């Protein structure tokens, strides 16, 4: 039998009082425009995590020793995305107030808005590192301001946001970036040097950072299981090296992994997502 928790940790070994990290599953894909399925993402990531080694070779330590508690999944309110964002805000705030590193598993990217809202309450000087193939800067999309295409726009209204990996946007979004002087790093990166890119990203990040990952930032060759894949994306090594570099210079207080739609690709994608979650936990809790 399994515990249905991240890493399959028995509840007794993941006491929420002692855990430094809390996983919050949010199986929501209500505003997805092309193919739904991200609602199955959190369960697929958690199941894949059962096969991870606790020993993280790159970091040379057993990351699970920090204590990783898996909270009950949020049951999405049928009232629409604004309500789900509020549910995520409330749940995230509860854990953040207890000093936990929050790891939100999507679900569609919209849920990031709720997590950032919550962490802005506990950390007013928060900034957001936003990894996504898409700019997500539409003011409205398909009749709502709370859809997956408006996530970075809503977050940018709350705090500084630095986008990385972007390779698709509308003409309106392109004009908006120019007018608002937003920090958007297109991919492929013009300089082709991760170190230079990391330095430029750090210029616009405050000391406390929330990392928001739409898994479609990765190249579809390794991450086909997303609702809206975009060619010529970041490699596994580029994403992990970049996050490791940022975590060495900033304190990561929370993160999300979103948009895994397990039915759209091989099972390897859920394994990659689980490993990425584990690595980010490792980077963020490095001694
Ligand atoms: Mn995206």
List strands and helices in order, with pairings.
Blueprint (H helix, E strand, L loop, with lengths): L20 E6 L14 H9 L5 E2 L4 E2 L5 E3 L10 H17 L3 E6 L4 H12 L4 E5 L19 H6 L4 E6 L4 H10 L2 E4 L7 H9 L5 E7 L21 H14 L1 E8 L9 H17 L3
Parallel strand pairs: 1-4, 1-5, 5-10, 6-7, 6-9, 7-8, 9-10
Antiparallel strand pairs: 2-3
Helix pairs in contact: 1-8, 2-3, 6-7, 7-8
Manganese (II) ion binds next to loops.
CATH superfamily: Ureohydrolase domain
Described by the principal axes of the CA atoms, the overall outline is globular
Report the portion of residues in β strands.
15-25%
Q: What's the helix count?
A: 8
How many β strands by DSSP?
10
Structural class by SSE content: alpha/beta
Radius of gyration: 17 Å
The small molecules bound here are: manganese (II) ion
Q: The CATH topology, please?
A: Arginase, Chain A
Instruction: Say what oligomer this is.
Output: single chain
Order the strands across the largest sheet as they lie in space: 4-1-5-10-9-6-7-8
User: Can you write the helix and strand succession as a string?
Assistant: EHEEEHEHEHEHEHEHEH
Describe the structure.
- The structure is a single chain.
- By secondary structure, this protein is an alpha/beta fold.
- It has a single domain, classed as Ureohydrolase domain (Arginase, Chain A), CATH 3.40.800.10.
- 33% of the residues lie in helices and 17% in strands.
- It contains 8 helices and 10 strands.
- It has helices at residues 41-49, 81-97, 111-122, 151-156, 171-180, 194-202, 236-249, 268-284; strands at 21-26, 55-56, 61-62, 68-70, 101-106, 127-131, 161-166, 183-186, 208-214, 251-258.
- It has an 8-stranded parallel β-sheet with strand order 4-1-5-10-9-6-7-8, with helices on both faces.
- α6 packs across α7.
- The longest helix has 17 residues, at 81-97.
- The chain is globular.
- The model has no long low-confidence stretch (mean pLDDT 96).
- Bound molecules: manganese (II) ion.
């Amino acid at each position: 039998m399994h515990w249905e928790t991240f890493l399959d940790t028995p509840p007794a070994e993941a006491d929420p009082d002692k855990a430094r990290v809390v996983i919050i599953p949010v199986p929501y894909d209500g505003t997805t425009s092309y193919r739904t399925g991200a609602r199955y993402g959190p369960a697929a990531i958690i199941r894949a995590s059962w096969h991870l080694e606790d020993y993280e070779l790159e970091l040379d330590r057993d990351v699970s020793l920090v204590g990783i508690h898996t909270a009950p999944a949020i049951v999405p309110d049928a009232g629409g995305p604004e309500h789900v964002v509020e549910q995520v805000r409330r749940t995230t705030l509860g854990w953040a107030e207890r000093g936990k590193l929050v790891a939100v598993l999507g679900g569609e990217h919209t849920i990031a808005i709720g997590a950032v809202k919550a962490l802005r309450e506990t950390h007013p000087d928060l900034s957001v590192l936003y990894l996504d193939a898409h700019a997500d800067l539409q003011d409205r999309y398909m009749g709502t301001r709370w859809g997956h295409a408006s996530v970075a726009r809503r977050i940018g209204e709350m705090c500084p946001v630095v986008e990385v990996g972007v390779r698709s946007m509308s003409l309106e979004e392109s004009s908006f970036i120019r007018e608002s002087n937003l920090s958007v790093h297109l991919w492929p990166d013009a300089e082709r040097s991760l170190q230079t890119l990391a330095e430029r990203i750090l210029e616009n990040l405050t000391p406390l950072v929330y990392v928001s990952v739409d898994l479609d930032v990765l190249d579809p060759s390794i991450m086909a299981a997303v609702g809206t894949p975009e060619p010529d994306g970041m490699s596994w090594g580029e994403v992990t090296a970049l996050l490791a570099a940022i975590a060495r210079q900033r304190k990561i207080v929370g993160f999300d992994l979103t948009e895994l739609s397990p039915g759209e690709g091989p099972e390897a994608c859920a394994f990659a997502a689980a490993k990425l979650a584990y690595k980010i936990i490792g980077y963020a809790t490095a001694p």
